[in-house]
Amino acid sequence: MTTTAQLSDQQQQALQQLLSVADRTDPLLDGLEVYIVGGAVRDALLNLAAGDRDWVVVGALPEDLAQRGFIPVGGDFPVFLHPRTKEEFALARTERKSGKGYKGFTFYTGVDVSLADDLKRRDLTVNALAYSLDGRLCDPLGGWADIQQRCLRHIGAAFSEDPVRLLRLARFAARFHDFSIAAETLALARDLVRLGEVDALVPERVWQEFAKGLLTAAPGRMLQVLQDTEALAHIAPSLLYTPALDSVLAWASKQNLPLSSRYALLCSQSPELDSIAKALCSPREAKDMARLLQLMLSSSAFSLGAGPEQYLELFEQCDALRRPDRFEQLLHAAQGLITLDEKTWMGRLEAIRQVDATAIVQKYKNQGQHIKAALRLARLQRLGSV
């Protein structure tokens, strides 16, 4: 089905902007049946800024693209880089389940694979839209109708064969938080868990989707979907999720906190940080922020009657003198859970950073054992005067 009906002028213009003059006149594309597919088309119809363009080539062989100068980079199936733009062009393909997990598929590419065949293997109807080089919107699976109805819907029963599709469903639910999820799609997502497909996910792949979900406006929606489908207990069994985290993560999104801070808030109620980090393959920066945020939240420095000793201990534990920017980031994240005066705390940190450590070292150059104590005393005195 090819349609431009019911599109607003703004949507039609957004689609047209997916293609530049250079695309339309590119001699390397001349004579090829090529389409922009997936997210860029979806986002244009939603009047959102388009991200990277994904291209599909229909009715061609690998040698056809190679002869035109495209650079082969595909592993399991033929993918080529455009020699000038470096964008990816994949040959249209079908797939068949041949094993466990998200890598257990056999792919077929050939000149007989149609655009509709390629789109049918995708996860959700809203991601199965295409835009041709001559300006046609191709919608064989009803993606435009589901965009209008604000519904995330699977394409076929094969949805329950790939566990990554459950992660993507949860992530898209977070990004498009005003979209509902079709009941039959949720049922298939639960099948992925029941059949053990989710257990075949590797942590690196989980983190890719998890990180994208945390950076949306409503990360809690991703967690809700994973919880409702019982996938969260398999993906990150040590993560303690409660609905209260939804508002905290929504606050973090409004504050535009970086990924590491959002991850730290996600883990703020979970004692087994190492286990979570292993399950999600969290990067070191995120793991450090999670550990330090829990340390900050449990510090006596924020209790009634706290003074210079407690303040300095927290600064030292957080390595704040060497990493003041990270400490400020920690303070900002902590405000999602406790009340604190970030300006006052940064003023205290700046006060002890003004202590002339070089002068103290020089003063006690023949009495090295006194340097640490003298430096600490000077910092405590500064904190007492702030």
From TrEMBL:
What sequence ranges are listed for the domain Poly A polymerase head?
Answer: 34-153
Keyword presence, Transferase:
yes
Print the keywords alphabetically. ATP-binding, Magnesium, Metal-binding, Nucleotide-binding, Nucleotidyltransferase, RNA repair, RNA-binding, Transferase, tRNA processing
Q: Which co-factors does it depend on?
A: Mg(2+)
Alphabetical list of InterPro entries matching this protein: CCA_bact (IPR012006), NT_sf (IPR043519), PolA_pol_head_dom (IPR002646), PolyA_RNA-bd (IPR032828), tRNA_CCA-adding_enzyme (IPR050124)
Q: Which domain of life is it from?
A: Bacteria
Pfam families registered for this protein in UniProt: PolyA_pol, PolyA_pol_RNAbd
Where is the tRNA nucleotidyltransferase/poly(A) polymerase RNA and SrmB- binding domain positioned along the sequence? Answer: 178-239
The entry sums up its family as follows:
Belongs to the tRNA nucleotidyltransferase/poly(A) polymerase family.
The molecule here is called CCA tRNA nucleotidyltransferase
- The organism of origin for this protein: Alcaligenes endophyticus
